Amino acid sequence: MLYVTNIVVTLPNGKRLVNQVSFSVGRGEFVAILGSSGAGKSLTLRCIVGLTKPSEGEIALMGPSGKTYRTTNVKAQELRRARRHIGLIFQGSNLVKRLTVLENVMLGRLGHISPMRSWLLGFKDSEAREAMVALDRVKMAPFAARLAGSLSGGEMQRVSIARAMHQRPLVYLADEPISSLDPKNADAIMSILQPLSLETPVVGAFHQPAAVAKYCTRALGIRNGKIVYDGPAQISPRQLEYIYGESNSDLPFVDSETKSELYEEVTV
Amino acid sequence: MEATSKEFIQQEPSVLDKKFLDWKFLEWKRSIAGQRWKQAAIATLLALLIAFSAWRCNVDLRSFVLGIDKGIPLVGMFFPPDLSSLTSMLQPLAVTVVMAMAATILGMCLSLPCALAASSNLAPPFLRLAMRAFIALERGLPEIVQLLLLIAIFGLGVVPGLVALSFSSIGMLAKLLADGIEEIEPQMLESVAGTGATRSQVIRYAVIPQILPSLFANGLFRFEFNIRAGVMLGAVGAGGIGYVMRTSMNAMDYQKACVAVILTLILVFTIERVSDFFRTRILSGGLLR
Q: How many CB atoms lie within 10 A of CB B131?
């Protein structure tokens, strides 16, 4: 179970980017977070894994044995221990491009390996074989020896999922896992994540309501840092409009009234 | 009726839009005019600077022309090269190569920790600042100045040359590497740190693999430079082929000096070819994976 309780992220100028966000995710759930760019989706995910420190609120992760891991208000070592149990799937370019595909998958287990061994010996063959199994689950085993930098976007995304799987986490966090992919690849990634969520809950930020409706079990709508929707993944058009708000309001846009003001300055 | 894209671009802008476009056009025109003026000012300034420095330094074209007159017979004295001295020069030549090689390897090894400490995405600000200051100081002192200081400490010979070249190799390589480390995408580091890895593990598995090719490619480049710089430092007192060149010039044994010059040329060309060969393979990812 993942518990997110009243987290707040505040800018130095006092503006709240994430405002009192609370939700919990349990077994068998595939939760999609929807919202326009800058609404606070990614920031919420970053808070969960402790890459951004929320100014208020608590985040806790509970294992099946009842052991609890926190990523808020903890020391670096405890944070690292909690991170071992969170499988991160970023959008696109998060693999180490100069390492092989299989090495990238093995990075998922770094939290369980002492830094001393990392420097002196590296990974064990048994770990490599385990990683190979994870790679096979996302159908990337034939690419094991390739450099990660030589893969296509969809392939990288699969390897990124394999790395998270190899970690055997308590929850998966996916930050826009299909945003940079074509529809076919996006579909393929979603049909990997969906069965995964039956064993371990998946929380993802998405921009594709149609894909969310097809694969997810639940959706959260975030607008201006606040949760405005929490319900089934099949969202009605009216609810969607509410989540995303009126469009274009914050794009630079010169209307004709402003223009007439501008040219008057010159003619004087 | 829907407008096609062709019609769209041919549409006349409205009166309001036209005035807006005119206004923007004038603004652009003004900024261009300002640049022309600036260019002319800079050109004039440069011309004045050259004239002023020529006047202050008493540059005399006559001595230059007279020098050419004297120089032409001198060039003749270099030929034919005294090939009997060839064998005696192989040893100092080897000294120059070994000095450059050792300095490059030392520089590469030591520049890695320096670069890690000098990059903003890994090191705390005060450490980064201190390390950047050290690198800047190191790069600010020409090799020859460093050598003169080191000769005062170690005396004449290969040792001060080796140390001077090592230090300036660290200066250059650490700066290039640190800049390379700062260009690593933060998401890459975060995603490794996000698995619960320690900072040292992030360095081992995300930073080092990404910068290793650049370390070796730049190291090879630095090796070429160290050969040429080593010859020059040799002439000042760091031994090797440069020293032979200078002593035979001082003894007016120009035919012997000629052999040293030819050997140096051959050496530099060879090293350049070899390092080019490896560098292209490292950067294309064939070597070093």
A: 20
Does residue A53 belong to any structural domain of this protein? yes
B30 touches chain A (CB under 8 A): no
Nearest chain A Cα distance for residue B23, angstroms? 7
Beta-carbon separation of B194 and A256 below 8 A: no
Handedness of CA B36, B42, B45, B49 (dihedral sign): negative
Shortest distance between the Cα of B184 and any Cα of chain A, in A, equals: 10
Task: Identify the segments of chain B with pLDDT beneath 70.
Answer: 1-8, 285-289
Reported ipTM: the value is 0.78
Chain-centroid distance of CA B173 in Å reads: 9
Chain A: closest CA distance from residue B39 (Å): 27
Domain residue limits at B181: 85-283
Tens digits of residue pLDDT in B68-94: 877 787 777 778 877 777 788 888 888
Instruction: For an interface test with B, give the residue of A101, A105, A107 to mutate (most B CBs within 10 A).
Output: A107
CB B231 within 8 A of CB B143: no
Q: Are residues A39 and A137 in the same domain?
A: no
* Minimal-distance CA residue of chain B relative to A255: B17
For A4-28, what is each residue's pLDDT tens digit?
989 998 888 888 888 889 999 988 8
Please tell me whether residues A75 and A149 are part of one structural domain: no
The residues with which A30 forms a beta bridge, in sequence order, are A202
The one-letter amino acid code at B96 reads T
Specify the DSSP element, H or E, that contains A204: strand A202-206
- Are B115 and B34 members of one domain? no
Q: Is the pLDDT of residue A256 over 70?
A: no
Q: How far apart are CA A45 and CA A49, in angstroms?
A: 7
Residue B161 domain flag: yes
Range of the domain at A100: 91-168
